Amino acid sequence: MKIFRKLRLHELLYNKKDKRLAAAIKIMVGSKPLNLSLYKLATKHSSAAEEIKHGIKASNERLEFLGDAVLGAVVAEHLFIKFPYRDEGFLTETRSRIVNRESLNQVGQKIGLSNIVESDLSGKGFYSHKSIYGDTLEALVGAVYLDRGYDFCKKFVLTKIIIPHFDIENIISTTTNFKSKIIEWSQKENKEVEFSLKSVTGSQRFKEFTIELKIEQEVYTEGKGPTKKKAEQEAAKNACEKLNLAL
Amino acid sequence: MKIFRKLRLHELLYNKKDKRLAAAIKIMVGSKPLNLSLYKLATKHSSAAEEIKHGIKASNERLEFLGDAVLGAVVAEHLFIKFPYRDEGFLTETRSRIVNRESLNQVGQKIGLSNIVESDLSGKGFYSHKSIYGDTLEALVGAVYLDRGYDFCKKFVLTKIIIPHFDIENIISTTTNFKSKIIEWSQKENKEVEFSLKSVTGSQRFKEFTIELKIEQEVYTEGKGPTKKKAEQEAAKNACEKLNLAL
């Protein structure tokens, strides 16, 4: 079987659809599949899965479970090495900002999973399946892991998912609680700091809040955002920068 | 450095304490450490850690974060392969019953981590550190991963932690919700089923509840446990067996 795979003889058995999937996987993963059936399963959403035994569907959900775990381990090591002086609370928080439904879904769409996912969402609201590409991305990680082993999969996750699609520095800067940094500073320096709402603009659905940060009753910085909290963070971040506070 | 390690020249630099730790790790992990400093860090509880920079302590908490992730991936794959026909809900639930503070803490104690953990719990209640061995076990997994790579670490986790210390069949049987099985059966068969508390014995801290399961007002089975819920499960499990209900 191994020599069969090595000589790529299995590719002779591919039908047209298989060839298309194998080509897409090659682009996404960086290497041709050894065991294509894993990738077929990874791209099969439960809505398109047939029952193989009473009550058991061959969908990508089991691979998603596996891929989620492998992705978690790869990202954990990446952050562990990248931030040797940050504590486990920071590492946990930063990882959860990378590995979450929303961001994985976006990456899944960006790398083109919508072209290869098999699903049958007819009659179902889009929103009941809005994480379909994120789920499929996790399943793909599970398939790559089983197909090529941990080290290959780690390289795939880092070079094709994490590094090109996540700006970790930016993620961190939004993780840092700037507001509490500023309050800490004000207490140490014995200064009066105040956050006040300057304006709310935009429509009912897309509001923009503007917050002024005052130090000793004088406007020092301003911040804008879709929520009051985010605008406060932004104002506080600007103040931290202006005050040269280490982050 | 590699050849230095290969010839085990680094062991010449071990002091007495290092030698003792290396010997303990060899027994636990199945192989001598290559980079002992990883294991020194893994066995350093935060209560015994010195500050290396302002606010930064060199304790095992970062390795615990990494080890938790690697352990999660290894157990995920193990269950994925062991149960090819079970869905991801079952896999997730079963994994969380294996990888949890309580069970890891017990295993940590069993493999002898209490002999090598460095901690300073003086003046602190035992209960504030009751997961110390489970946390250290996770940190040890993180250290083995960094020291020897994923495949070695996976073998370590499976052969030294999971297979000898977890009875997965038993874990699954307690995962099954026997009470709902019985209630389902009673509705189908149109029988009256009742759970009633027969007695509570034991001290304030260690109670034992006894629950009777009655079918058509007659005692059919009994169950005991440290909580009412567990005693009910036990009584229901016994009834499922007596009724030959498929689980």
Report on this structure.
The structure is a homodimer of 247-residue chains. With 247 residues, chain A is of the alpha+beta class. The first copy, chain A, folds into two domains: 2-174, Ribonuclease III domain (Ribonuclease iii, N-terminal Endonuclease Domain, Chain A), CATH 1.10.1520; 176-242, Double Stranded RNA Binding Domain. In chain A, 55% of the residues lie in helices and 13% in strands. Chain A has eleven helices and five strands; from the N terminus they run αααββαααααααβββα. Chain A has helices at 2-6, 16-29, 36-42, 61-82, 88-98, 101-110, 132-148, 150-165, 168-175, 178-189, 228-242; strands spanning 51-53, 56-57, 193-202, 207-215, 218-225. In chain A, the strands form two sheets. Chain A has a three-stranded antiparallel sheet. The first copy, chain A, has a two-stranded antiparallel ribbon with strand order 1-2. In chain A, α4 (61-82) packs across α7 and α6 (101-110) packs across α7 (132-148). The longest helix of chain A is centred in the N-terminal third of the chain and has 22 residues, at 61-82. The mean pLDDT of chain A is 88. Chain A binds chain B through residues 53, 56, 61-62, 64-66, 68-70, 72-73, 75-77, 80, 85, 87-88, 91-92, 142, 145, 149-151, 154, and chain B through 53, 56, 61-62, 64-66, 68-70, 72-73, 75-77, 80, 85, 87-88, 91-92, 142, 145, 149-151, 154.
Compile the SSE list and pairings.
Two copies of one chain form a homodimer.
Chain A: H1 2-6, H2 16-29, H3 36-42, E1 51-53, E2 56-57, H4 61-82, H5 88-98, H6 101-110, H7 132-148, H8 150-165, H9 168-175, H10 178-189, E3 193-202, E4 207-215, E5 218-225, H11 228-242
Antiparallel strand pairs in A: 1-2, 3-4, 4-5
Helix pairs in contact in A: 3-7, 4-5, 4-7, 4-8, 5-9, 6-7, 7-8, 10-11
